[in-house]
Amino acid sequence: MLVIEDGPSAKKHRRSTKVDDDAAAAERRKLIDAERRQLPAWAARDKLLQLLQEHRTLVLVGETGSGKTTQIPQFLLSARFGSRSRSRSSTAPGKPTSDKAGAAGTPGDIKSPQKATGVVERDGASRGAVTQNDGPAQNVHHVSINGSDGGGAANHGGPQQPTGKSVGGSDGSRAGGGAIAVTQPRRVAAMTVARRVAEEMGTKLGDKVGYAIRFEDVTSHSTRIKYMTDGLLLREALVDPLLSRYRIVIIDEAHERTVHTDVLFGLLKGVQARRGEDFRLIIMSATLDAARFVDYFPGAVAALIRGRQFPVRVMYTPKPEDNYLDAAINATLQVHADEGEGDILVFLTGQDEIDSAERLLKDRLATLQGSRGPTSSPSFGSRELLVLPIYAALPPEQQMKVFEPAPEGQRKAILATNIAETSITIPGVRYVIDTGHVKARDYNAKLGLESLAVVPVSQAQARQRSGRAGREGPGKAFRLYTEADFSVLEPTTPPEITRCNLGSVVLQLKAMGINDVLGFDFMDPPPRAAILRSLELLYALGALDAAGCLTEGVGRRLSRLPVDPMFGRVLLAATEMGCGQEAVAVVAMVSTENVFHTPRQKEREWRAARLKFVSREGDHLTLLNVFRGFLELPKESNKARTTWCSENFINIRAMRKAEDIYEQLVRFLGHPSPPGLGLQLATCGEDSTPLRRALTAGLFPHAAKLQPDGSYRVLATGRQVFLHPSSVLLDRKPACLVFNELMHTTRTYARDAVEIEARWLPELAPAVFAAKTIAAAAGPGVGINERLAPATTGVAAGARGRALRGAE
DNA sequence: GGGTTAGGGT
């Protein structure tokens, strides 16, 4: 069971199996109520509501365990913020409704961040030594909310106003007019928090409180509080740019700065400008970066709610470690030998590193046991150390082991990637070992190249890691670097939107009528080159016209498909080429990561298993074979599926996700009326040619030709790349191929490749591959790249010029 | 000749 962020309350939550026992239910409600009142958020209730009446944007810094995610929406609802009735009675922007505004003492100061220098007081219990060692708390402009007692405020979950007609011309869809939307970066969080809040309010999930995530909508017409993923709200904005069905939008975990939240920021700013007093925005963030948000949103005010975090003592190494992996193993053994009860969480960078750390640690333990005898030392060997890996690609049954409590007399040492920073919370952890490194994705817009490299963490990330030791009691964090090293780390990790491919983002903005993408009000604008590159790509795909405007035929349809624009283009082409079914399966599979589980110590086994699926034509067809194999299993038999997957070293989570995407795409492409595209999904059977042609029609910007030295050259750019070692084509190296993506690690690798015919290119992408050039290139022994590169660059430059004219 | 951090989508 994954435990979500934000609070002991949610963590303790167990769903009651029966509610027919009224007495027990009432008892439970009392308990829940008592629990709620303990939460720091509860004490801040009245003040928060007051602030929100006076300001259109509230930036709420709620530390871990404050209860902000579960409580704030309920407060708003009980204060009728979640109903339509008060929206008309509110006053003009900037004019407080309440004459009590001054009485609270501070609102005047709060409004102007520059004046309100109130340093946030931080009590020791809240952050303890972490703060101390990290240096002084940042000087942020907030007001600290110290609970006025929340005694009188008990009408939570009271009867709600009938919704009537919604504001701003609602479309009458579910969770109708004036509801409260609360976004989360992760699906599990949206689900579990919604479930908890429904229970607190004593309603059925999907009734007054619900959630919506991709593939799942548990809301109804009576839903007033809707927890959802940020990506989903972004999708809704495509259809309803004013988000008219919501009176309040809450962006939770805003400090994580996902691509989705960052785009939402810009959109919401526009929504505020157009909806005025009719709309309220709350930005909830766990770290003290409120000033950024306050500066960005006009008229915003910040407030802090304390958390319930136990103190964590942070230790640094006196001098730099030259091998953090060795250091981590030593530190783990030392903590195990010297420290009291509690599990150890070690942050490493990736699967390989975790695998080898696991081996090294187990070897060291065996040696120690052997030299001392099984029970010789009271401090060492008296307790066993249970070494457990956790990372996203690990099969679920192995992942589950970290959530089980250590058996009596044992201690867990969990070797984790940054999955344990935010996505999952592991119970029992009291010691954190931070190697100070992380494997991170980056994007070089000029080269259109993604890279994956081990880099130092940011200070914020280091704090987040340390905090994992203080969830259940006082803890200790061991940073395997010096305090001086910490002080020179970047304060925060740059937002993702500044370091990723923007194809989808630019397409979405265009589809929402935001034509001047370069001028979009991003909180942190992505590199200009990244936007330009996306415009070029979208033009090449036919999604934008020469003026940079969305094309109705291709562009509009691509914007609605929930896949990368290049894959969307593959799907559209496939429906015309009679291989829609196969293409949907392939796109679903490539939209899923970690299909194959490839543990290093079982390489022979997984290679043998994979052979059954291998297509000599490439990775896409191999993935298609896997998907077909999976679909042949009885859908209702979980057992059969689990067994098949584990026998074949296939990740069942990935397969379930691929199946969901497949079904969603089939529904979408096939459905006859508007949101659907009403396209026929035919099958090409065993003939792979139509499918490979369809893939070419979308992936042509990634077409590459074999070079004499065994490497490949990307036709559109002239770049030299290598086939990724995981490709089934590695032994066969066809003369021409298209691939999904480039990734730079030790070298520049092309991942997921499929063989194509060079002569298809001018036919399927005439704007980019002039027939003449290809004809020359197709001749034997002709230096194809030298001829192609200038031609394609010229086209790209032309596209850029035209696309920009529309944009600027 | 050799390898993938984590999230997310009407």
UniProtKB/TrEMBL annotation:
<keyword id="KW-0378">Hydrolase</keyword>
<protein>
    <recommendedName>
        <fullName>RNA helicase</fullName>
        <ecNumber>3.6.4.13</ecNumber>
    </recommendedName>
</protein>
<feature type="domain" description="Helicase C-terminal">
    <location>
        <begin position="328"/>
        <end position="513"/>
    </location>
</feature>
<dbReference type="GO" id="GO:0003724">
    <property type="term" value="F:RNA helicase activity"/>
</dbReference>
<dbReference type="Pfam" id="PF00270">
    <property type="entry name" value="DEAD"/>
</dbReference>
<dbReference type="InterPro" id="IPR048333">
    <property type="entry name" value="HA2_WH"/>
</dbReference>
<dbReference type="GO" id="GO:0005524">
    <property type="term" value="F:ATP binding"/>
</dbReference>
<feature type="domain" description="Helicase ATP-binding">
    <location>
        <begin position="49"/>
        <end position="306"/>
    </location>
</feature>
<dbReference type="Pfam" id="PF07717">
    <property type="entry name" value="OB_NTP_bind"/>
</dbReference>
<dbReference type="Pfam" id="PF04408">
    <property type="entry name" value="WHD_HA2"/>
</dbReference>
<dbReference type="InterPro" id="IPR027417">
    <property type="entry name" value="P-loop_NTPase"/>
</dbReference>
<dbReference type="Pfam" id="PF00271">
    <property type="entry name" value="Helicase_C"/>
</dbReference>
<keyword id="KW-0547">Nucleotide-binding</keyword>
<feature type="region of interest" description="Disordered">
    <location>
        <begin position="1"/>
        <end position="24"/>
    </location>
</feature>
<dbReference type="GO" id="GO:0045943">
    <property type="term" value="P:positive regulation of transcription by RNA polymerase I"/>
</dbReference>
<feature type="compositionally biased region" description="Gly residues">
    <location>
        <begin position="166"/>
        <end position="179"/>
    </location>
</feature>
<dbReference type="InterPro" id="IPR014001">
    <property type="entry name" value="Helicase_ATP-bd"/>
</dbReference>
<dbReference type="GO" id="GO:0003725">
    <property type="term" value="F:double-stranded RNA binding"/>
</dbReference>
<keyword id="KW-0347">Helicase</keyword>
<dbReference type="InterPro" id="IPR011709">
    <property type="entry name" value="DEAD-box_helicase_OB_fold"/>
</dbReference>
<feature type="region of interest" description="Disordered">
    <location>
        <begin position="77"/>
        <end position="181"/>
    </location>
</feature>
<keyword id="KW-0067">ATP-binding</keyword>
<dbReference type="GO" id="GO:0016787">
    <property type="term" value="F:hydrolase activity"/>
</dbReference>
<dbReference type="InterPro" id="IPR007502">
    <property type="entry name" value="Helicase-assoc_dom"/>
</dbReference>
<dbReference type="GO" id="GO:0005730">
    <property type="term" value="C:nucleolus"/>
</dbReference>
<dbReference type="InterPro" id="IPR011545">
    <property type="entry name" value="DEAD/DEAH_box_helicase_dom"/>
</dbReference>
<dbReference type="InterPro" id="IPR001650">
    <property type="entry name" value="Helicase_C-like"/>
</dbReference>
<dbReference type="Pfam" id="PF21010">
    <property type="entry name" value="HA2_C"/>
</dbReference>
